[in-house]
Amino acid sequence: MRMQLILIFAGTALFLFFIYAALVSLREREQLAAKRFLSGAVLLALLFLATAFVSFDGKAFVFSLLMAGLLSGILLFLIPNGKNRRYRQVKPEGRIDERDTMFSRNELMPDTENFEDYYRRNPEKKVLDDRFRKNKGLLQKGTSQYHPFYFASADASFETIAALRNFVNGTVATERIPVEEEEISRYIKNWSKKLGAVDCGITELQDYHIYSTGGRGERYGQKFVKSHRFAIAFTVEMNHEMIQTAPAGTVVMESGQQYLESGRIAIQVARFIRNLGYEARAHIDGNYEVVCPLVARDAGLGEIGRMGLLMTPKLGPRVRISVVTTNLPLMADKPLHDFSFIDACVQCKKCAEVCPSNAISFNDREIINGSLRWQINQESCFTFWTVAGTDCGRCISVCPYSHPDNGLHNLIRFGMYNSGIFRKVALKMDDVFYGRKPVPKPVPQKLQTI
Ligand code: SF4
Ligand code: SF4
């Protein structure tokens, strides 16, 4: 009788969990996952209930097997193993020149002084860049993902960001309000979240956070120096439904909107700090003096993953980042030093498999310019963007860490953080439930056009 009760209880609990997971998947438009969770619910219920109610030889043995399986699953999830003791990070030695980034190179106009100068110094890059210059380009008519509404919407966001660039810096109030480090740090974090940030972290500004030389707009060729002591990093969420459509036009629409959101938050916080009588500069899209993912990592917001982007604990790479640098006295956060992200990326490689331009490496991290990291082939990636007309985002959309921030996925994330064995199993299960190469989802119904 006790055996029967245990089986009914365990079977019902598993059945309900799988039904819950199926409903969550349906809401997330993950049809494959919903079907598989539903099948799992039925199979488990049948298995447990049949063992509870049907009499057969060896029932005690099957009962022991089921209980051992269930218990091992729970222990696998709960017992910490393979955590941060193997974490290894090598700090970058040099600084990145913004002129080498693809956005800067994309702005170089043939027959101009900057164009001639850049390719004189980097002749090997000319051949690579000539390839993307032959294509239509970002947000252009005639690209493979062209859609007049989505591209015009994205362009509207980028134009608004461009207008905001006038506000990244400004006058500092003459009266300086005395502040207490801990209190002002807590205030900025709480207020930025009220403004729409999902997370906010603080770090001491390092030389390697700062671009050596500006590469965009009027800042081209300008040498940057460290003039502030602290950097505050903000992350905002990119909508899951929109990112799932990658590389469609709706992705660049979402990117534009979240660059704008994160930039607006940085501008407001920088203005607030200047109102208190301290220097502050916002770093927003198209007007960065700092390398945002490195700042955000050191500010404790995540780790840099295989695709070279910041991987955050609750949203993975599905974020945009902005930064404020300042001389306001603040309390720096500790970096996460989270080995689980690095280990997951070593095993997973899903982004590398789906990347349409083969820009993401399948190898382990390597020392590049004194820093231990993965580096994507930025030329291949950007060349694909100029064919698609969007910023692609396929890698972000398939990442197992990009699932929505909800009970189901946070439970899995906890297990992946806590246990190396669970991490291995969860990554395999992600392929089973969501597909190894998930196909892009249709554009959200409200944005569909005829
Ligand atoms: S898809 Fe996999 S390998 Fe790529 S960043 Fe995400 S976890 Fe890492
Ligand atoms: S954005 Fe697209 S092309 Fe670029 S690395 Fe990611 S998947 Fe590859």
Describe this structure in words.
This protein is of the alpha+beta class. The chain folds into 2 domains: 1-78, no CATH class; 88-397, no CATH class. The chain is built from 17 helices and 8 strands. One iron/sulfur cluster (SF4) binds at residues 307, 355-357, 359-360, 376, 381, 384, 392-395.
Largest sheet: 4 strands, antiparallel
% residues in beta strands: 5-15%
Distance between the termini: 61 Å
| Strand neighbour order, sheet with most strands | 1-2-6-3
Count of structural domains: 2
Which class do the helix and strand fractions yield?
Answer: alpha+beta
Structural features:
single chain, 2 domains, four-stranded antiparallel β-sheet, two-stranded antiparallel sheet, binds iron/sulfur cluster
Outline the fold blueprint.
Elements: H1 2-27, H2 31-53, H3 59-78, H4 102-107, H5 113-121, H6 123-133, H7 148-164, H8 181-195, E1 199-204, E2 230-237, H9 240-243, H10 249-275, E3 280-283, H11 292-298, E4 303-304, E5 310-311, E6 319-326, H12 339-348, H13 350-354, E7 366-368, E8 371-373, H14 378-388, H15 394-398, H16 407-418, H17 420-434
Antiparallel strand pairs: 1-2, 2-6, 3-6, 4-5, 7-8
Helix pairs in contact: 1-2, 5-6, 6-14, 7-10, 12-17, 16-17
Summarize the structure.
The chain is an alpha+beta fold. Helices cover 50% and strands 8% of the residues.
